[in-house]
Specification:
With about 625 residues, this protein is of the alpha+beta class. Helices cover about 45% and strands about 5% of the residues. The protein is built from 23 helices and ten strands. The strands form four sheets. It has a four-stranded mixed β-sheet with strand order 7-8-9-10. A two-stranded antiparallel ribbon has the order 1-2. A two-stranded antiparallel ribbon has the order 3-4. Strand 1 and strand 2 form a beta hairpin. Helix 4 runs parallel beside helix 7, helix 9 runs antiparallel to helix 13 and helix 20 runs antiparallel to helix 22. The protein starts with 9 loop residues before the first helix and ends with a helix. About 5% of the residues have low confidence.
Length: about 625
């Protein structure tokens, strides 16, 4: 038997432990080691208590940290007296207390000392994690996201925010430093970016929650859930759930947490007419609930904080986790405020562009575990990390101002910028852009076929009947600036044809189903940040407006190409003089669906729909 706690009046507790010691010896032949016991009482003299002395139980305390070497043999002044620098002075007297289920319960010195050591250990753990994994930033991020940032959360739930605040802020700073090291020093310093990374990934953040802000939420949620479990509760059907500490019914009052509208909950504990100081933990609860409610006061989003502290935690489903519900209410308010501030930035601000461009695909890397097949390299991770946030590129920022070796470039884009946008917009030598397009197309289209969706890639046969065989087929330039196969060459060759029942509009993702008779054409496109598409009215106003804007033009591009081919003399002769043969064949196949992938990992609506189908 381990970690047994006895709580009550001093005389009662010491007598009970003595009886337990006798029973264990008689029944099991075991003896309790007195030195492993510990006791504590607020404002009581345990030093001279006869029950404690008879039991041999030491008063709980914590050893102070060892003094620095210079403090052991300090230099002397002219009179021979030890002379210590302020930072070498012996630590203040550490107090008394005990750990109850890992939570320090004791006087201020004791609690602060325990938390200081835990915070220092956590800080060291965070720093060591990113240092040891510096060659594998994807693994370092996963460790930080899933483990390191949460190591202090237990204490946020069980101790008042006033006690944990300084240590939570200290660990918040450590997490920021660790995360920034995966990009470059200072990449998370500006206020907009700092606020964004605090949001969860589903709200286009990084999920690095600020522990100092989480503290009041965690504390009130734990307080409410613990209080409800302490006293008897009666359900709507009359069943009674026994409380764990019915002696506390005097604090809360009979039936405080019974089901139904008549429950008074915390009214007997924290009513406004009751003096503060009567129950210190109740005072901390009121302060924390007030702080949490004030932070969400101006938000239109409803949640647990709409109730007063007297009815805290009421009217919620039995399976709802209160901390999660309050946190969600806070995060919705924070997201709305951040969205308004980001939209007020200049349209050309990369942070604005990144915020309005990200979708559910963009944040997949945040929670994805690295695997042998899918782990991101060090260079890849740094670029994905910073691009997602719209901050400078680790690879491009040292090269800012240097010329870009190009074969052609849009006006004013021949110089490298710190974000690397001009590199993406430049027409580079070789197949840089084509390789990007082809790699994405191969993965998406290949996965669709492997999922059992009937179809084929690059279906050259679709227009064979309306195009003469001697019309040359030009190589695919879909990844280059200036258009893909629908915009250049003498053939129309979509990237894929799948038999799917697609909705008529492509403005929003839809649920699809494979069909045996409806071929649908697909064309893969990529767009790069900083260009005209990302500065369009749609991109400046709507989330993922850039990929949507590019998607809307794809079918029009194919129709233009079809009309161009219909105007060719050789094509007219082949089709007996018809001027609409190619366009008619194209129209019979329905709209060409655009699978557009953007700079920030986002994709057009048809990509999301295709994923649902596959």
């Amino acid at each position: 038997m381990d970690d047994v706690y006895a709580v009550g009046p001093r005389d009662t507790v010491f007598a009970a432990v003595a009886r337990f010691q006798t029973a264990v010896a008689g029944l099991l032949g075991l003896s309790i080691v007195p030195a492993k016991l510990a006791c504590f009482s607020f404002g009581a003299d345990l030093d001279h208590h006869p029950g404690r002395i008879a039991l041999g139980a030491p008063i709980g305390t914590i050893d102070p940290p060892p003094p620095p070497p210079a403090a052991i043999h300090p230099p002397a002044d002219d009179d021979g007296r030890p002379q210590l620098a302020p930072h070498l002075m012996p630590p203040p007297l550490h107090g008394r207390g005990v750990l109850v289920a890992g939570v320090p319960i004791g006087d201020a010195h004791y609690v602060d000392t325990v938390l200081a050591r835990i915070a220092a250990d956590t800080e060291s753990y965070i720093s060591k994690t990113v240092t040891e994994l510096r060659c594998d930033p994807h693994a370092a991020w996963t460790s930080l996201y899933y483990a390191a940032q949460h190591r202090f959360d237990f204490f946020l739930r069980h101790l008042p925010p006033a006690v944990t605040d300084a240590y939570a802020r200290r660990l918040d700073a450590a997490v920021i430093t660790a995360a920034a090291s995966l990009g470059y020093a200072g990449c998370l310093d500006d206020p907009i970016t700092r606020r964004r990374i605090r949001l969860p990934a589903r709200m286009h953040g990084l999920g690095l929650r600020e522990r100092a802000a989480l503290a009041p939420i965690a504390y009130v949620a734990c307080f409410v859930e613990a209080a409800e479990a302490c006293v008897d509760r009666t359900s709507l059907d009359g069943a009674v759930a026994a409380g764990a500490f019915d002696v506390l019914e005097g604090l809360f009052g009979p039936g405080a947490f019974d089901a139904g509208p008549g429950a008074h909950r915390f009214a007997a504990l924290v009513a406004p007419n009751l003096p503060r100081g009567r129950v210190p933990s109740a005072d901390a609860f009121v302060d924390a609930w007030t702080a949490a409610a004030n932070a969400a006061a101006l938000s239109p989003h409803r949640g647990p904080l709409d109730h007063s502290v007297l009815q805290a935690g009421s009217d919620r489903p039995s399976d709802q986790r209160l901390q999660r519900a309050i946190t969600s209410q806070h995060e919705l308010a924070a997201r709305d405020a951040l969205d308004a501030d980001i939209r007020a930035l200049a349209h050309t601000d990369p942070r604005r562009e990144a915020w309005l461009s990200t979708d559910s695909f963009s944040s997949q890397w945040i929670s994805a575990w690295p695997s042998r097949r899918d782990a991101l390299s060090a260079l890849e991770f740094g670029e994905i990390f910073t691009t997602y946030l719209g901050v400078e590129s680790p690879a491009a920022r040292p090269l800012a101002g240097r010329p870009i070796p190009v074969t052609g470039v849009r006006a004013g884009r021949s110089t490298c910028d710190a974000h690397g946008h001009n590199v993406g917009l430049a027409v580079l030598k070789g197949r840089a852009h084509a390789d990007c397009h082809d790699a994405i197309a191969a993965r998406v289209l290949g996965d669709t076929l492997r999922a059992g969706i009937p179809g084929s890639t690059e279906p050259r046969y679709l227009f064979a009947n309306v195009l003469p065989p001697h019309v040359p087929s030009q190589p695919n330039t879909a990844g280059q600036h200036g258009g893909g196969r629908a915009g250049g060459g003498q053939r129309i060759i979509p990237d894929a044809c799948f038999r799917l029942a697609f909705p008529a509009a492509a403005e929003a993702p839809a649920a699809l189903a494979p069909t045996a008779s409806s071929p649908t054409l697909f064309d893969v496109k990529t767009i790069h940040a900083g260009g005209g598409t990302y500065l369009s009215a749609a991109a400046r106003t709507h989330r993922c407006g850039a990929v949507a804007q590019r998607a809307r033009s794809v079918d029009t591009d194919y129709q233009r190409k079809a009309r161009h081919l219909d105007a060719e003399p050789a094509v007219r002769r082949h089709n007996g003089g018809s001027t609409t043969a190619v366009l008619g064949t194209l129209r019979a196949l329905g709209n060409v669906r655009a699978l557009v992938f953007g700079q920030y990992g986002e994709a057009s609506a048809d990509v999301h729909s295709l994923l649902r189908a596959a």
